[in-house]
Amino acid sequence: MIKIFTDEEDIWRRIWNETDVREYNKVNLGDALTKTLLRYLSKEWKILEAGCGTGKWVLFLNKMGYHVEGIDNEKMVIRKLKGMYKNIPVKIGDVKRLEYPDNSLDAYVSIGVVEHFEEGPVRVLKEAYRVLKKDGVIILSVPYESLIQRIVCKIRKREILKGKIFHQYYFSKEEILNFMKETGFRDFNIRFYDKFSFIRRRGVVKHIRKKGGSKPVSKTLVKKIFSLAPNFMTAHMILIVGKK
User: Fold this and answer.
1) Considering its fold, how many domains does the chain have in total?
2) What domain range is 66 assigned to?
């Protein structure tokens, strides 16, 4: 696992304050994550998104005819969502202490959440397992420790380690699968996605220099180069579908 630190004590409040929610919540139907959600979820199911953030998937899936509720522990973002979207089914909640009975949900969705617990994801996964029915589906997405991510982290080592506050982990495929198996999940389907996230992030491409000079390589050129590499080498996220 790669461990990332920050200097910001309230990084999520700052992120949500700066986020254009309506723009962020636009869904690309051709995206790997969207396709996976539509493929593995049923409109007959009771579904929870644990750590719903801006409500993107709660809004989209309910609009498509699914039955999805969302919880998040950030009170500010929940209030903001309820002010923006009438009757949006979201509420304040703790993914480590879900207010749902045992074996009560058909599916559990977690997109970029469990990596933010310094003690690791097991406690959150155990709660997911508890509330799911037998053969219930979990769709889990976390930052992926790909080859390019290891290179980027080496380039930015001073920057990502200088903070004193834990932010998140990047997991290898084996690490996150072992955590899920330890919890009891099985029958995994795995995809790698968000291939060019590292290019979009500020402060990465500027470190990549043309040989023999100091001029930065353009993002377009870097993107073309890495488009030739397989997803498991360059993806920013790993997406796992499993069963209880």
Assistant:
1) 1
2) 2-146+161-195+236-243
